[in-house]
Amino acid sequence: MKIKKIRKETFMQSVLILMISQVFVKILGLLYKLYLTNKDGFGDKGNAIYGSGFQVYALLLTLSSMGIPNALSKMISERTAIGDHRGAHRVFKIALITFSVMGFCSSMILFFGANTIANNFLQIPEAEMTLVALSPSIFFVSVISVIRGYFNGRENIRITAHSQSLEQIFKTVFTIIIVELLGLLSGMDTTVMAAGANLATCFSTGLCLAYLIVYYKKMKPIIASEIKSSVNYTPTRIRKTIKQIFSVSIPMSLSSIFGVLNKNVDSMTVVRGLKNFMTEEAAKVQYGILNGKVDTLITIPMSFNMAFATALIPSMSHATAIGDTKTIKKRIKFTILVSILIGLPCMVGMILYAKQILQLLFPNATSGAFIYQISCISIIFVLLEQTIGASLHGIGKAFVPAVALAVGGIVKLILNLILVPINTDIFILGGTAGAALATAICHIIAVSIEMRCLKKSINIKFEKIKFIIKPLVAVLIMSVTSKLLYEFLILNINSNLSLIISIFFSLIIYIFMVFFLRIFSKEEIFMIPYGQKLYKNAKK
């Protein structure tokens, strides 16, 4: 019986698949966040309880997973590039056992340490139940990460996209069902509903793991066939393989760890600092605004960019393994340009319409426009950080993004300790806005360090006109025309409809300006899915 080979995706196919998945995931994530924030009894306070617990969970998850998806993706890609399928699968099996044990231990730490973490570190006692509810998820996601990393390295990105979408569908459905049920049973108790929202995460990750296990079993005959045809296999001891895995995963995980630590800086300093000039309840509400509504909205553009960053690592690793410097430079420049073109309009548009967006999406909890505007400054720098960091990982400079985020994180911690306790009546950038500003400065510092190292490592140059001036001109024209249209429409129709029409119109104007200014070269347009058709239409 002839066994079919697993179909591999090209770089841009991988990007497109992941982008569709990420956008779908973010839309569903926004839907259940809208539901929670606008629900009676939940609101900004519920977001504070829910979010603080989730940040601790994210930190432990990052520690237990040790950057394994990208690390394993890199190692598998390097081995399959030279035909060593047996070695690639052996790395996968050893990683699966190793990180399953680490995930289980982290789950136990979170389960038994929930009381201490909630009361002593977060100073939000209500978060204890959310931590307990989340604890099994660490084990589930540790195993999920290994399986995803294995298939990503085989350039089978589709399974990662499908599993992410499926997980988010489960999470959205379970969140609504569980919160509604617990709300009725508890008399709309915010603490109980917040724990229920995180319990939905546990159920969804468990089902996602089951899906990936079934898929792996289905692919086993194909994998076995490839292993038989393997070449260039060099047997290594288990201990040596584990060391190799950690030598790749630890530098990669450090970036994620410092990224999550930076988020935990807010969870551990904002409520503490705000209590200097407001009540504890009011402080929790302010933290809920930052961690719930604002963080949800500013991460939406990252879903588009994350697809490029995720697909870039195995692509760069493959190109590095065979010494293809031209492909490395071409893809890095293209991906950074795309990050700029995604980040700039999102940043400017959200700053312009911050108040209107909150009124549209959170009619029962509209506060936080200024905090949202300050947070939006981070968008372009976070996107560039994702892309440049992925590029550095792909070319073997994995420690650089970690160092960059560590330096930025230290600056953020210092700024949080200084700015958050300042009463906003005295200084407008104090309080929660100070934390948002500190985050932006953190990412600006990190991007500066990463970019400097990238330029030195591969001698790559970025033309100022193409990468800075033309994108700024396109965004400026988009902003002016959009604002003028909004001011005209609001005189005749309601604010929400005016906002939707203006955003849609500004998107069309921006895309037109990108092609009119010829920001993309002909070769770069062809790299975009359906690029040849776009090129013909743009020419017309």
Task: Provide key terms for this protein.
540 residues; mainly alpha; 3 domains; 83% helix
Question: What does this protein look like?
Answer:
There is one protein chain. The protein is an all-alpha fold and 540 residues long. Helix 11 (325-352) packs antiparallel against helix 14. It has three domains: 38-235, no CATH class; 253-462, no CATH class; 470-540, no CATH class. It has 20 helices and no strands. The longest helix is centred in the middle third of the chain and has 39 residues, at 190-228. The protein has helices spanning 11-38, 43-65, 68-81, 85-122, 128-153, 158-186, 190-228, 238-274, 280-298, 300-321, 325-352, 354-361, 369-376, 378-394, 399-419, 431-458, 464-489, 495-516, 522-527, 531-539. The N and C termini lie far apart (51 Å).
- Could you report the average pLDDT, rounded to the nearest whole number? 84
Q: In sequence order, what are the helices and strands, one letter per element?
A: HHHHHHHHHHHHHHHHHHHH
Can you count the helices?
20
Tell me the span between the first and last alpha carbons.
51 Å
How much of the residues is beta strand, in percent?
under 5%
Q: Look at the helices and sheets and give the structural class.
A: mainly alpha
Overall tally of structural domains: 3
Give the overall form.
globular
Largest sheet: none
Short description:
The protein is mainly α. Helix content is 83%, strand content 0%. The protein is built from 20 helices and no strands.
